[in-house]
Amino acid sequence: MVASTCLHILRVLVDEELVKVDAAKHYTLGVGMLSLARSVIETNSFPAAVQPLLDRLSKEWSVTAIGVEIAGLDHMVVLALSHSKIPFRLHVDVGSRFPTLISATGRLVAAYGGLPWNEVERRFRTLRWQNPPSIAAWREELVLVRKKGYAVDRGNYIGGVVVLAVPVFNARREITHTLVAAGLADQLNSRQCAAIARDMRAQADRVAELLFQRP
Predict the structure, then answer these.
(1) What is the b/e burial string over 146-177, where b = at least 16 CB atoms within 10 angstroms of the residue's CB?
(2) Which of 40, 83, 131, 154 has its CA 20 to 30 A from that of 7?
(3) pLDDT score recorded for residue 119
(4) pTM of the predicted protein model
């Protein structure tokens, strides 16, 4: 980009308070981004539809419950969040972005997204995990994801943390969002994870009906 064009764009953004500049000519995001982000969330029907369900999940199962939108092949975005009252907090906020194929949601996208395997493998190799699974083991997990209808990340993405995710499909059976639950590994055994996943799948169907007006 031509320097003068870039400067002109920055000046407009500063005028709109989307960007701020200090005396040293360093540009950073401005407070106007907050209202912009709020308006995006308020016009998105997913947060309103999912928040009551997340609140119930977090309270009943003592997990951090999260509503995620799949924003293309590069990122997923947290649009809704509910913390439990137990002394465990996942470092995530509304607006947080993560690589699309990471953790439990990533397994769902890989399993249901219809992507060619060479593209999935290429993106998988760019991911950063605390305890990375092998590509072979991860691919085998995708078979179980399709069979069970939910995905589990047990300590791969974050050591000591279990992450569950269930898909939300649109009318064309395309995965658009996920419901996610996260908790400490020593508090979520396999039987508990299966029970939570069943509950979450029922909630995901309700969300799909609200969003896509299924009969």
Answers:
(1) eeebbbbbbebbbeebbbbbbbbbeeeeebbb
(2) 40
(3) 93
(4) 0.79
